[in-house]
From TrEMBL:
It comes from the Eukaryota. Residues 192-201 have a biased composition (Basic and acidic residues). This is D-aminoacyl-tRNA deacylase. It catalyses: glycyl-tRNA(Ala) + H2O = tRNA(Ala) + glycine + H(+); a D-aminoacyl-tRNA + H2O = a tRNA + a D-alpha-amino acid + H(+).
Length: 201
């Protein structure tokens, strides 16, 4: 063991320099790979509701509760991806066949409750959360409203509910399973026809 310690401590200077360069390269790669995308946390629920100031503003029965985090760089293509994937995720059992993970929320004629949640893009600086990569409120409000509209146009308008943007909300839910999935719109670059089983690199 002593010999091993000695050999490591007496590495040539060029080897030490190479090791430092490798560490810097790894750190740079991690920064490059930082996700820049719209984020959605999807929960299969038997019921969910939103209260603001003690008043019920939205509620659904069986369906999906979707917490939506908007990144400062999000565009309409990110919204299109999240809308399409949430509505087509096969998170429900086919009661006719008994097959699990077989039907989406539209096939079951269930509801969707959307809730804007900028804290999905919080990062810790020490022990304090920082939200600088989240989309600023003045831009996020109309963008979120357009996302809700996409959902309503893609499904039954009355089946899409939402909370109150920017309000202090109390979100109640009964998670069914539990089943919780996270989606990032950056995944859309991996496949443009995933629903048909084809993968495009």
């Amino acid at each position: 063991m002593h010999g091993l310690h000695h050999s490591l401590s007496t590495l040539p200077s060029f080897a030490k320099a190479a090791n430092k360069t490798a560490k810097k390269s790894t750190f740079a790669s991690c920064k490059t790979l930082r996700i820049r995308a719209m984020r959605a946390v999807v929960q299969r629920v038997t019921s969910a509701s939103v209260e603001v100031d003690g008043n019920m503003v939205s509620e659904i029965g069986p369906g999906l509760l979707v917490l939506v985090g908007l990144h400062e760089s999000d565009t309409d293509s990110d919204a299109d991806y999240i809308c399409r994937k949430v509505l087509n995720m096969r998170l429900f059992t086919n009661e006719s066949t008994g097959r699990g993970w077989d039907q989406n929320v539209m096939q079951r004629n269930y509801e969707v409750l959307l809730v804007s949640q900028f804290t999905l893009y919080g990062v810790l600086k020490g022990n304090k959360p920082d939200f600088h990569v989240a989309m600023p409120p003045q831009k996020a409000k109309p963008f979120y409203e357009s996302l809700v509209d996409k959902f309503r146009k893609s499904y039954r308008p009355d089946a899409i509910k939402d909370g109150v943007f920017g309000a202090m909300m109390k979100v109640n839910l009964v998670n069914d399973g539990p089943v919780t999935m996270q989606l990032d719109s950056s995944q859309s670059s991996k496949s443009t026809n995933e629903e048909t089983g084809k993968t495009i690199n």
